[in-house]
Design a protein that fits this description.
- By secondary structure, this protein is of the alpha+beta class.
- It has four domains: 82 residues, Nucleotidyltransferase, domain 5 (2-Layer Sandwich), CATH 3.30.420; 214 residues, Nucleic acid-binding proteins (OB fold (Dihydrolipoamide Acetyltransferase, E2P)); 119 residues, no CATH class; 73 residues, Ribonuclease E, catalytic domain (Hypothetical Protein Ychn, Chain: A, 3-Layer(aba) Sandwich).
- Helix content is 34%, strand content 25%.
- Strands 16-17-18-19-21-20 form a six-stranded mixed sheet, covered by helices on one side. Strands 3-2-1-14-15 form a five-stranded mixed sheet, sandwiched between helices.
- The chain starts with a strand and ends with a strand.
- The structure holds zinc ion.
Length: 531
Amino acid sequence: MSEELLINVSPMECRVAVLDNGVLGEIYIERHHKLGLVGNIYLGTVVRVLPGMQAAFVDIGQSRTAFLHVNDMQREPKPTPKSKNQSFVETEVIADSSATPADSLGMTPPIVSAQTTEIVPVSNKTLIQHRLHEGQRILVQVTKDQLGSKGARLTTNISLPSRYLVYLPSSDHVGISQRIDSEDERTRLKTELTSLMQTVSLKGGLIARTAAERVPLNKLEEDIYYLVQLWRTICARRQEINHHQSSELIYQELSLPLRSIRDLVHADTEKVIIDNAQVYEQVRYFAKEFVPFIYDRIVHYTAEPALFDVHRVEDDLRDALKRRVDLKSGGYLIIDQTEAMTTIDVNTGSFVGGRSLEDTVYKTNLEATHAIARQLRLRNLGGIIILDFIDMLEQEHKDDVLSSLQQQLTEDYAKTNITQVSELGLVEMTRKRTRESLGQQLCEPCSTCQGRGFVKTAETVCFEIFREMMRCARTYNSPKKFTVVAHAAVIDLLLTSEADTVADLEYLLGRVITFEVENLYTQEQYDIVLD
Ligand SMILES: [Zn+2]
């Protein structure tokens, strides 16, 4: 599969598009005014310890104090572990270290929480009030951005990603990304990394990221040297500022263009095209240092039209926010995202053509499996996903569609899992949530319908207005006149098909009713003004 990376930089935001064979596969957007803090390392100050919650508020120099839970704290020096516990811990670490590129590109750096590496029995877990006190200086890393009134979430289990590895200073294990399947390869990585760490006398743990698969020893070595250097710089900086009063940033996670060079580029990447001179220079410099093989494939795009217009990215992005996705065969998907889950409904087009119905349905479902897999990635939908394929009669067809879906999902960088096919033929699946979906990132609930997707009909609103006028007439005796201020569609109805009701009401209430169109109102908004 040939890949291209397009990097579009504007004063407001940076966007990275991954094209698979010329088609938009993934999109990453970072808006400059809300740059995330995830991955940043701070020397923070403990502001308050909350024994009841086993947590602490830590100042990291942001508008809100950040939150540190005891489970996210580096464990105390452990008692000699039993050997069977040891192996349990190892598998857990590996299971938790699905350090895929997209993970660290998105909102969740591959951090191994203290919970999974915990070796001491739960009852021995040290209480937070015995470990932290107000005013204490503490090295922390952000794992979740602050959101609304909630402060950022912190960990003391620092993790530093490089291209192929993640360094965990406070762990002591070598783990391998679960997406590397081959047992031989896992063993090789484990052996080589363990001995490399001894060579450079690096303390702590390492995770081999998915990108490390079949990467030669000298490349891994380069990565380790980079991480050793980075960790030294961080420790030195910590020493240097330890006596300062304020909380300070010690290490900042790379910007999106550099992260995408670190995490998204691989041997199949044919080109990296960047439309901004300054970022082009930064990326070239970074690539020369850390990802030299891509250096000559980095291109500065200066022509017209805009980079994302040339490759249809803008069009695809616009379509990726729509409910409906058209299929070539004439069928279509309807994608609905709610808080609890995403549902994808497959439909045939109206034209069935010359073939039999079962055949058309089968072909549409097969085509849908490709479109679904692509949309899941592009929209970055996560959590529970319910797929409603069109009913098929033949078991062989059902099996084919399911296996085609499974095949398509293997291309996904995020972990997916088909959990079951229900009696009604619904396919239930999950997809690992790595960051906000495209819709969550770019959209907000519609203010006209409050996110329901529907508004009350003009007729419903008319009847509401009638009831409201009757209530007003009962409550206030004085008004001689009612003025209805509403949306044009509602006023139209009041003056035409509802004119008789209005006349009846004027007679019943003994008052004159006049009308006024307010262009700023939505169809559901109205006012009744009393004179
Ligand atoms: Zn709406």
